[in-house]
Task: structure prediction
Amino acid sequence: MSEKYAHLLESLDLGFTKLKNRVIMGSMHTMLEEVPNGFERAAVYYAERAKGQVGLIITGGIAPNPAGVVAPHGAKLTNKEEVAQHRLITEAVHKEEGKICMQILHTGRYSYNQELVAPSAIQAPINFFTPKALSIPEIHQTIEDFVKCAQLAREAGYDGVEIMGSEGYLINQFIAKRTNHRTDEFGGSYENRIRFALDIVRKTREALGEDFIIVYRLSMLDLVEGGSSWEEVVLLAKEIEKAGATIINTGIGWHEARIPTIATVVPRGGFSWVTERLMGEVNIPLVAVNRINTPEIAEEIIASGKANMVSLARPFLADAEFVLKAAEDRAEEINTCIACNQACLDHTFTMQISSCLVNPRACHETELNYEPAALAKKIAVVGAGPAGMAAATISALRGHYVTLFESSDSIGGQFNLAKVIPGKEEYAETIRYYDVMLKKYNVDVRLETKATHENLKAGGYDDIIISTGVSPRVPKIPGIDHEKVVIYDEVLSGMKTVGASVAVIGAGGIGFDVSEYLAHQGILPSLHTKEYMDEWGVDMEYKSAGALKQPEIELAARELYLLKRSGGKHGKDLGKTTGWIHRASLKMKKVKMLANVQYDKIDDEGLHITHDGETKILPVDTVVVCAGQEPLRNLYDELSEGGKSVHLIGGAKLAAELDAKRAIHEASHLAAQL
Result:
């Protein structure tokens, strides 16, 4: 066992059972439980993580009654007929000597279900439906439903349950004044508002006995108006302990909060300070959460006394062997979660099965596997961007002899541009991971080597994979060759500098990234916890309920215009769970966003436009072009005509908006088949 992570890997004695280390795989709603054969797939998914030595797994949320489901036909555990499918999961995990708890989640007013209920009939800002206020008999029935759900979970073989009391779901809705306007014994005073939570925990403990794990997910930081005060959080934690909880897990922010809590922009371990604040107030283990994506961060949190345990969710999508690799001193081989949300949360909120941008096998373990090749081939991969790195690594892992051609002096492709964007520094980790894997599997990496028809033909390759990526599209605007004009890759690579006033042409993902980059130039990016909390308005002194304060915003380093031809809101096609963050960040920096723009010409005066029918001149020093991309596929066309076994993936196949998720997905599936 690695001494480097001694605190992280230390076992934890819970009295009636022992956890092998201090790592929890946190709850994630993957949609697996809602699809045909989903429980069989979920069993394999969880078993791989148990085999990877995680100390305790917590499933995605399972409703205790029909009103509490995430959406119609959502997963629930309400009767003995539903027990059998859950047993598939628990038996698979126990076979790998793992432990697993089932999360009991009642969504309350967040349910996308017309029969939704809540403490009070107050519509959530993120939902279309208004909930029905629960009557007193319905509240007592709901408490019994939680208890029965826990009993069924035990019958299904789970080692315990997590009672979801945070993130603005039903229990949290009872606790907060924001959503509880009742005047009976479940409303009014704080003691009354926490009665629902305490009754659930106490009655679950009474029904299940002492040898069953009960994790309570406590909202330590609501981040909404009308949320709990710190004194209330402490009181609730103490009462939850008395009611019989085994472990208290940290909950951060409601889903309707307008502060990023898990996106890449959030500093690593950035919310562990609130768990640390509760340390010593209770005698049961406390769990730190959110943006803990490396064993170094996890070890520091536990070693420094910020928490007794850590919960990592998305990092176990990125790498099922996170703990095992740390324990075997192979941390450099961990495929690090970059918190992009593109294949996990964005999928969940669009009712798709979750996966992972950097690991397409996540939640698809029964469909995508990298088996040893029956016959070792010579394979050439052209282009070392995300698609090329993935294709080369997986092909070599399977036993093929792989040569990777890259015309530049480094691997990484477009990720080398992404990693310099403030809030996207994590993208460097993916390049690091592939660099380690390429070396491990003996890929012949040829940097500063342009692949040609001739040298590929001379190499005698059985298969050639073209992943040459994209080139920026340059629009036909009069004056586009003016000295004021630069292309986005020239800016992000440091080849060109920009002036004090800038117009960015194109408001897709790259336009937003370039604007963020230019807004922060000269300002320290928000990489440190205090600076981040100040910028987004989180009160680390917790003087107010919900821990909100006035944001402390530094204006952009230069005057910026973000322009687009189409009408409507800027960033509407960005990620469902992260697009609002990018819009809010630029808005805070006072970036001027103009839609319905026609680009007339560029000259010494600046950028001439027609905006909403009115002719204007933007007197800018620099015009940055972010107007899309063209696929680089000439080599593919040449080779295809020559009858070679050639494959096209990534941006070279389809350049519409840079899509690393699709690129790595295509590369992984192709490499699995060759």
Residues 485-522+557-627 form a domain with the FAD/NAD(P)-binding domain fold (CATH 3.50.50.60). The longest strand covers residues 213-221. The chain has a mean pLDDT of 94.
